Each structure stands twice: as structure tokens, then as C-alpha cells.
Amino acid sequence: MPLSEQQLRDDLVKYGRSLFQRGLSSGGSGNISAKLPDGGFLVTPTNSCLGELDNQTLSKLDADGHHLSGDKPSKEVPMHLAMYRARPQCGAVVHLHSPYLTALSCLTDIDPMDCLPSITPYYVMRIGQLPLLPYMKPGDPAIAAALAESAQSHNAALLANHGPVVSGSTLREAVFNAEELEDTARLYFLLKPYAYTQLSASDIDELRQVYRNKIG
User: What is the spatial distance between Cα 29 and Cα 53, in angstroms, rounded to a whole number?
Assistant: First the structure.
């Protein structure tokens, strides 16, 4: 059963505060949104801190991204809208400047088709693959265009020198996906100086068969 608008407002405040308090979004960085039952969505306002959100001043937009009420929305609204349009099952989008993923987005030796190795089954189950999108300045409409193409087959993407964009069928799932992704990047940096074991191709195929509807 879909959550009411008030429940979504309360959850955006709750999860925003949680992400901020754990250092996954500092200052006024990052933005999150959640789809409303009527197809519109709520998004964090421009220059807002995820740790200080007010459920009454969240920006409310219609399904076409037009601002209906609340404070002025984030300049990254086109990015959220692109994800919703490309993935009909998407119920929420989380964009962070989390430390390990942002650091990963600056490396020169990563595979742009899949930025992280398959270290754990949880990364495969929740994300599957993480493509790298070329650098574009924050708020550039080209980000939305690139994300719209990528989101056809991926529920997350990494913006070069910027940070991750992660979706989920619900706000809770999108947040959990973003957390799992950040944890995988952290593990990657911890393991990078050493020899380590990745999941085998058969292990990955088995996991993707089960979770294809979620990550594809």
C-alpha cells in the first residue's frame, strides 16, 4: 500500500537526518526525493542540509517536474525526474556526495562500465553494476540526459568527480541501496592495496537471476 504524502514527508526528514549524521552528506550537499501516489514527487529544497529538513517546507512537484509548493527545489530536479521516467518502478532517488564513492569517482583506473568489483553478494543484489557517467557541472541538463539512458538498465550511476545517484522502489530501499554502495566503495579502498577474491561469474549470474527485477 503506497505511503501517504505526510508519511513520505516524515520519512524524507528521518532518512535525510540519518544520512547526514553518519557523514554521507555534509553541509548543504546531496538531495533526495520520493514519488507521491499521484505521480508527482517531493524533493529536498535547494541549499538545504539533509540533517535539518522540515517536513512542511519540502519542495512538491508534479509528474512533469513543475514546482507546486514548498521551498524552491534543488537544481538537480531534472536528474531525479530522469530516473523516475526511465524506471517506472522507481519510488525514490538518493544523490549523495558520500566520501568513498566521491573518491572513487575521481580515480583514473576504474572501469566506466562497472566502477566497483563484485566483492560481496549484497552489492550484486542491490546494485548489480555501477556505470560511471562523464563529468558535467552540477545542475547541467546533460546529467539528466546521460542518466536517462543509463537508468534503462541500471538502478544507480556514479557521476565523475561528483558522487552517486541511486534509486529504489521505496525511499527506504533507495537509502539502503545508497548505503550498501558506499560500504562497497569503502571495502574496495581497504582491499585495493592487497590481493583479494571477487565473486565468480557463476556466483554473479545466480544472484542476478534472482534479483534482476530489482537491479535491472
Answer: 13
The pLDDT of residue 208 is 84
- pLDDT, one tens digit per residue, over 20-54 is 999 999 999 999 999 999 999 999 999 999 999 99
Collect all residues with Cβ–Cβ distance below 8 Å to 45 and sequence separation of at least 6.
Answer: 57, 58, 59, 70, 71, 72, 73, 74
| Sheet of strand 67-69: strand arrangement | 67-69, 59-61, 41-43, 31-35, 92-95, 163-168, 156-159, 132-133
Long-range contacts of range 19-25, CB-CB < 8 Å, 24 or more positions apart? 19/50, 19/94, 19/96, 19/175, 19/178, 20/49, 20/50, 20/51, 20/52, 21/51, 23/98, 23/99, 24/96, 24/98, 24/99, 24/178, 24/179, 24/182, 25/50, 25/51, 25/96, 25/97, 25/98
Q: 25: which DSSP letter?
A: S
Give me the amino acid identity at 65: G
pTM comes to 0.95
Q: Is the separation of the CB atoms in 51 and 16 below 8 Å?
A: yes
Alpha-carbon distance of 29 to 137, in angstroms, equals 14
Task: Supply the residues annotated as catalytic.
Answer: 76, 122
Cα of 102 vs its chain's centroid, Å: 12
